[in-house]
Automatic annotation (TrEMBL):
Residues 112-323 form the ABC transmembrane type-1 domain. It comes from Streptomyces niveus. Residues 1-10 have a biased composition (Polar residues). The keyword Kinase does not apply. This is Sugar ABC transporter permease. Gene3D superfamilies: MetI-like. The keyword Transport applies. It comes from the Bacteria. SUPFAM superfamilies: MetI-like. Its main location: membrane. Residues 1-41 are annotated as: Disordered. InterPro entries: ABC_transporter_permease, MetI-like, MetI-like_sf. Residues 11-23 have a biased composition (Basic residues).
Length: 335
């Protein structure tokens, strides 16, 4: 075979090899679209599933806030700008007239004074008595569980049922005066006397709700390390110093929480006033929340009642904000 023939044979072999390679290795640009998409990540990644689960969990709470908080507040703002006659269904836009009427209301000062007395009395007695009960029941002794249940049991009782029972007990010939008569003391008509009506309402509210604060304080006290108490006793610290320098600073977050809850609850107390005294005698127990009810539903002043409701909302938000801002001075380790 000559050199020329050998060269042609080698060229043909190379051509056949290239043809086989092209046949075995298809062009990626000509591959089906389904084959090219297999490298893409799936749409429902772990992060997206977690985000969706989080939104699903908060949806009920968010719907409740929108339906029962935001929408009612917006409606109250709208009603406060109108004069609404419920019987005829007519609404007349009056602008800021209802807000101007606040300054001309001769009863509003007495109502705000009664609200301050009621709220202050409930907050001071509730927090102090709840802390005292928690300190006493935090010790190990026989019957501690029974007393914890006893003091907490009024919380689970219906507000109306609890108030009705105390209404009978505080009557002129009720159980309280009967017990006082045993020791030779003539009790007053607690709910019909202006000097004792507010005191009766405050005590009734405190007895029923003190169990919540007691449980919160009890949980906080059980979280205080026992080593701190032992070290303080070794250093010669007394019970008073231990309580003021160790216990109170460490449970101060719980004190802040109970203060906010108690203030908001006191400003919203309605059933106790409505069932026990009906705001009387005169205006001695007419707090702001009951005055809103009177103006809106008894006197049919929906616009003015909505204005008073917005005032109550402003007080709640303001007091909560003040307490939250003061947490840096009250709460231990709060920056």
């Amino acid at each position: 075979m000559t050199m020329t023939g050998l060269t042609k044979t080698l060229a043909k072999s190379r051509t056949r090899a290239r043809t086989r390679t092209r046949t075995r290795t298809p062009d990626a640009s000509r591959a089906p679209a389904r084959a090219r998409d297999t490298s893409r990540p799936p749409f429902w990644t772990t992060r997206r599933r977690d985000v969706l689960a989080g939104y699903l969990f908060i949806t009920p709470q968010l719907a409740g806030v929108v339906l029962f908080v935001l929408i009612p507040v917006c409606l109250a703002i709208w009603y406060s700008l109108n004069d609404w006659n419920v019987f005829t269904g007519e609404q007349t836009f009056v602008g800021a007239d209802n807000y101007a009427a606040l300054a001309d209301d001769p009863q509003l000062a007495s109502v705000l004074g009664a609200t301050a007395v009621f709220c202050g009395g409930v907050v001071v007695l509730n927090i102090s008595l709840g802390l005292l009960l928690a300190v006493l029941l935090n010790r190990r002794f026989r019957g501690a569980t029974f007393f914890r249940t006893l003091f907490f049991s009024p919380v689970v009782v219906s507000v109306v049922a609890w108030t009705l029972v105390w209404g009978f007990l505080l009557q002129d010939n009720g159980g309280v005066n009967g017990l006082l008569g045993v020791v030779g003391v003539e009790g007053p008509n607690w709910l019909q006397n202006g000097d004792t009506a507010m005191l009766s309402v405050i005590i009734t509210q405190v007895i029923r709700s003190v169990g919540v604060n007691m449980v919160l304080f009890l949980a906080a006290l059980q979280g205080v390390p026992a080593q701190l108490y032992e070290a303080a006793r070794i250093d010669g610290a007394g019970s008073r110093v231990i309580f003021t320098r160790i216990t109170l600073p460490l449970i101060s977050p719980t004190v802040l929480l109970t203060a906010i809850i108690t203030v908001v609850g006191a400003l919203q107390s309605f059933a106790q006033i409505a069932v026990l005294t009906g705001g009387g005698p005169e205006l001695s127990t007419t707090v702001l929340v009951y005055y809103v009810f009177q103006q809106a539903f008894e006197f049919n002043h929906i616009g003015y009642g909505s204005t008073l409701a917005l005032m109550l909302l402003s007080f709640v938000m303001l007091l909560t904000l003040v307490q939250w801002q003061l947490r840096r001075k009250w709460v231990f380790h709060e920056e």
